[in-house]
Amino acid sequence: MNDTPLRVGLVGAGPWAHRVHGPGTAAHPGTELAAVWARRPEAAASVAAASGGRATPVASFDDLLATVDAVTFAVPPAVQAPLALRAVEAGKHVILEKPLASSVAEAEQLVAAAERARVATLMVLTFRYGADVTDWLARVHRTGGWHGGSARWLAATLLETGYEASPWRHDGGALADIGPHTFDLLDAALGTITDVLHAHFAEQGQVWHVLLGHESGATSTATMTMHTPADPQITDFAVFGAQGYLHLDAGGDAGPRYAALLDEFVGMVRTGRTEHPTDIRRGLHLQRLLHAVTARIAER
Fold first, then answer.
1. Going from the N-terminus, what domains does the chain have, and what CATH number goes with each?
2. Would you state the pLDDT for residue 263?
3. What is the pLDDT of residues 22-43, one digit of tens each?
4. Is the CB of residue 22 less than 8 Å from the CB of residue 47?
5. What is the pLDDT of residue 265?
6. Which is the catalytic residue, given 98, 128, 282, 285?
7. Which residues does 168 contact at the CB level (< 8 Å), separation at least 6?
8. Fewest Cβ atoms closer than 10 Å to its Cβ: which of 114, 164, 198, 238?
9. Mean pLDDT of the chain, nearest integer
10. How far apart are CA 271 and CA 258, in angstroms?
């Protein structure tokens, strides 16, 4: 097994590149932040400097691909998908933000390319890498007998100035940004989500209400908004059934969770594994669910 640090390039220079991707990749013992590229060169230089100053800000995406073994993306879905396609076709392993792409067709094209290239892929579904969450899921699966579940994610993210320059978040709202996390965890707890039974969007408060059907026969509900000044934000999940009620507060620091993601990613690359519960195929499943929710809304 090769224990040489994996040379990783970072694409993007927004809030998550500064707070999570950059410093997380630079600090991890199994990875080296080798290059940073963003649309604005000065922004890429700022991320590189803030992440320890060892990474090289590069002039183009092609320059980044020529420098690294893997790429971590911190850009909007419409930007991520075409660049990630080029990365996997160049044989680079990838860490991908959610949503995976701007459409199901685009996500399907990217997944097909990653499977052909046989590269390692992981989605930045940070909840799934928290020890408290994995312990909760293990207990959920060990106990069984659950009839349903619920999720409440109430935050003020899109009321804060730090995200005023993030058009895709404002356009897609809570469904696009936190919907993938929410649906992923409900799906992981209760079994594959097979149907969006109902969906409603309330203009007042920018609130999404979704009723989901699972392959197991269970149903779950999700209420999501990024326009509620809850302090701290509420990230409540629960399952209920014959064994009672099992609750989880999924809140936590993204830094340690991203480090755990990198543990998994490095292990995949070193052992040649390309399958993982939160790999690119998971991103496609979630993309289809987002599309199904918007289709339900359009029916009303």
1. 6-125+255-278 (3.40.50.720), 131-251 (3.30.360.10)
2. 98
3. 999 999 999 999 999 999 999 9
4. yes
5. 98
6. 98
7. 76, 77, 78, 176
8. 164
9. 95
10. 20
In this model, does residue 1 exceed pLDDT 60? no
* Whether 92 is catalytic: no
Torsional class of 177: left (φ above 0), alpha (ψ -120 to 50), beta (otherwise):
alpha
The residue with tokens 């409440």 is 152
pLDDT tens, residue by residue, 80-126: 999 999 999 999 999 999 999 999 999 999 999 999 999 999 999 99
Whether 278 and 123 have beta carbons less than 8 Å apart is answered as: yes
Residue carrying structure tokens 């209920």:
240
Q: How many C-alpha atoms does 150 have within 13 Å on its Cβ side?
A: 10
Tokens of 40: 């604005």
- The proportion of the chain whose per-residue pLDDT surpasses 70, expressed as a percent, equals 99
> In three state form, how does the secondary structure of the chain look?
CCCCCEEEEEECCCHHHHHHHHHHHHHCCCEEEEEEECCCHHHHHHHHHHCCCCCEECCCHHHHHHHCCEEEECCCHHHHHHHHHHHHHCCCEEEECCCCCCCHHHHHHHHHHHHHHCCCEEECCHHHHCHHHHHHHHHHHHHCCEEEEEEEEECCHHHCHHHCCCHHHHHHHHHHHCHHHHHHHHHHHHCCEEEEEEEEEECCCCEEEEEEEECCCCEEEEEEECCCCCCCCEEEEEEEECCEEEEEECCCCHHHHHHHHHHHHHHHHHHCCCCCCCCHHHHHHHHHHHHHHHHHHHHC
- Amino acid in the structure at residue 81: A
